[in-house]
Amino acid sequence: MNGNPKALEVTDLTVAYAEKPVLWDVDLEVPAGTLMAIVGPNGAGKTTLIKAILGLIKPAAGQVLIRGKAYAEQRRRVAYVPQRGSVDWDFPTSVLDVVMMGRYGELGWFRRPGKKERQMALDALEKVGMHHFAGRQISQLSGG
User: Fold this and answer.
1) Which of 23, 48, 67, 96 is least surrounded by CB atoms within 10 angstroms?
2) Superfamily designation of domain 6-77
3) Contact yes or no for 1/31 (Cβ under 8 A)
4) pTM (2 d.p.)
């Protein structure tokens, strides 16, 4: 990757369900500072790959590094918003509210996000080109 630091490095990743491999020997490098998309048909393993990267499912083999470290050491730097299947999308909350939820791990028990967290969430939305959706209800976004 031309000496650029890697935001994500996946090496020889194999994921199996009931001992049947669904992903095998996956290699992936994402340079720091880049945006990427995982695209493919239904059932191709996109969600499985994301879950393996996040440690939500255990790979049968391989390694995942985020900024050169295991996910467990970097989990406070990574956010994940699942698709429709596992979220109550009728709950009345905005896109900004959902992004701010990523800060709850840093706030501690019974603390609510303040101006700092709101600005961090707005900055994150700006970074991915979604700032104009900040006030929209989460249920009004597509699952993709």
Assistant:
1) 67
2) P-loop containing nucleotide triphosphate hydrolases (3.40.50.300)
3) yes
4) 0.63
